[in-house]
Design a protein that fits this description.
The protein is mostly helical. The protein has helices spanning about 20-35, 40-60, 65-90, 100-125, 130-150, 155-170, 175-220, and strands spanning about 10, 15-20. The protein is globular and about 55 Å long.
Length: about 220
């Protein structure tokens, strides 16, 4: 019933662009734009895009990327819940800079996860490019977990993922995906700047409120 998803919508550089790739990447672009605006709809749109990209990746035997999108759906559900709870409790999605421990944890999780998953892909043979495939898979999950917690650093992780995602997608025939990854990169830089400024304001406002409470306690 969904076989049409892998029919070609059009071609780019003599490479067919399946409907699943086209619609999934459009949803992914919308996800980045909504995340930049801290809009709760970023999560359900990401779930839809990931479901479409599962079909696109399995059609070109990128098993790791297909599995990545399954996990992305699960992680998006978690992020949706966290952001909804944050908006209910604080009236908005709170964002901030990660602590030193959180940053170390993100790097360690990305490094260890990439090695472990790449070895799994090599053993099972379900991916043509196990190491970059694993890197993109783990990096995407780490970025989403950081995004769910409102950490500014999630933009840095997405940028790192995009730098590998572009050549990998093009190499395996998903030319449209490679072009979209390039657009992702530009949008991620814009998000990085926006969340940097917002996180700094939240930090400064929090420090000012803390100083006021300290002054009130000293004069009481």
């Amino acid at each position: 019933m969904i076989g049409w998803l892998n029919d070609a919508a059009f071609t780019v550089a003599d490479k067919p662009v399946p409907w699943s790739d086209l619609l999934g990447q459009i949803a992914s672009l919308a996800t980045v734009w909504l995340a930049l605006r801290r809009n709760l709809w970023a999560w359900p749109v990401q779930i839809l895009g990931a479901a479409l990209l599962i079909a696109a990746n399995t059609s070109v035997h990128l098993g790791g990327s297909a599995m990545r999108n399954v996990v992305i759906i699960i992680a998006a559900g978690y992020g949706w819940w966290r952001w909804a709870r944050g908006r209910r409790d604080a009236g908005e999605v709170q964002i901030r800079f990660g602590t030193a421990h959180e940053r170390i944890a993100l790097v360690a999780l990305m490094a260890a996860g990439t090695v472990g998953f790449a070895l799994l892909l090599e053993h099972t043979g379900i991916s043509w490019a196990p190491w970059p495939d694993a890197y993109i898979f783990v990096g995407s999950v780490v970025a989403m977990l950081a995004q769910a917690r409102g950490l500014f650093e999630f933009w840095l992780v997405w940028i790192a993922v995009d730098m590998v995602g572009v050549p990998l997608a093009v190499q395996h025939g998903l030319v449209f995906s490679g072009l979209v990854y390039g657009v992702f990169f530009v949008m991620c830089v814009a998000g990085l700047v926006d969340w940097w400024n917002r996180s700094r304001r939240y930090r400064d406002n929090g420090a000012a409120r803390g100083a006021d409470r300290h002054l009130e306690g000293a004069t009481a």
